[in-house]
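=== RUN LOG ===
request id: a7f3
mode: sequence -> structure
chains: 1
length: 369
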Amino acid sequence: MKKGASQAKAENSVKIVHKSILKDLALALLISLPLLNFILMMEKVMKFSRLLSSVGASAGELFRLILYMQPELMLLTLPMSFLLSVLYVYGRMNADSELVVLKASGMSFRQAAFPAFIMGVVCMLLGFFVSFHLGPAGRRDVRLSVSDTLRTRAPYAIEPGVFNTLINHTVIYAMNRREDGLYGVFIYDRRNPKRPLVIYAKQAVIKPADEGGSALLFSLKDGLIHIVKGARLTEIFFGDYQLVLPLALEKPGVRLEELTPGGLLALAARQTGEPKTETMLEFYRRLTFPLFSLAIMFLAPALSLYAGKKARLGGLALGTMVFSVYYIMLINFEKLSESGRLPAFWGGWMAFFIIFAASVYVFWKVNRR
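=== RESULT ===
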């Protein structure tokens, strides 16, 4: 009876330790995740803010765009945040000799790392949900939001007396603006470098070309078109001329980032050659990024022991290095697949297999001490 009570007390103590470590891991994850998202988001926010501010987009529209970006960023920042959280918590425990005390009390390193396993599984499942559902939807919402803002606000962003370069490969200049449109409009269209166009119109009315697209319709009146082709110059006078200029931010066609895994597999079944390889690499990326959390839950607790007792943040440097090495391997193996020197399966999975095998080996070695 006394032995059973002692065993129950020991199990209860282990649960208390696990609960405390899990609480610290969750807190560190909640702090590091938005911080990393903010760091990675700044480059994209700067890009879109410059573009949208030129058409007078509101702060609310920019904030909505930032929210749409979060799922895409979480594919990278979730495993990275988990890695840094484990390294920080277990590194602190190692620096404070807490791991030594736990080992002296009879708890193995595998038992001490159990909360990291729980957090790793949670991050993996959340990663799959983001990768399969939230990520494609967020990517699509970003594109539609930017296109819709440009399409609806761009007609009012062209100011008189200013050379406007809002539309790619096109310069627009207007001498005056009235309620019924722009007057004295010059358009330099160099979308086709071999045959640039210089258009002058007395009046121009600008409106969205259609409801769902991302293009502007210029209704030009009483003007002249100069067509330059080599040494020849052609002049065409017109009374009414309809000019459609696209506002697309990306190349037309299927956007792999917006497809669900099922959509990627269906698309790959209809493709051959290089397009199929790119589609399958995107599909494998949707799987390996969430699964990376499984490698981290073995590797991070073991790495925390190598950070040293004097440097609690030493594990952060190790974690950044590990993530960088994994990402570099992933990019290089994918490049080998794209060049045809490696099957798409191995190009998508080799980096994960290497890091997972190394993580299990390092954890096994530390646990045997």
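=== NOTES ===
The first helix runs from residue 2 to 53.
The mean pLDDT is 80.
=== END ===
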